[in-house]
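REQUEST FORM: STRUCTURE PREDICTION
Request ID: SP-0412
Submitted by: Lab K.M.
Chain count: 1
Length (residues): 91
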Amino acid sequence: MSSRRSRSRQSASTMITDEQITDLVSKLHQLLPEIRNRCSDKVSAARVLQDTCSYIRSLHREVEDLSERLSELLDNTDSTQASIIRSLLMQ
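STATUS: Completed
RESULT:
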């Protein structure tokens, strides 16, 4: 009940229209490599959102993997090279 009240308090300018949602889903559809490479132009909004979540999870895993590999690399290089690499990464 409280969510209904809070929704009714929102002004019309802050409400997202169905057209805006469709536009945002379409933009997501264009950004996702898995969907973009498919032949079909018709993909449900639910599918686009599921694929978006999966893609974000895979990007997180990739970042974690690359961070771990970089840490190992920095641990195995001499301190001068490691500090140069660190300073370049901080820019």
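NOTES: Residues 9 and 20 are 20 Å apart (CA to CA).
Reviewed by: T.R.
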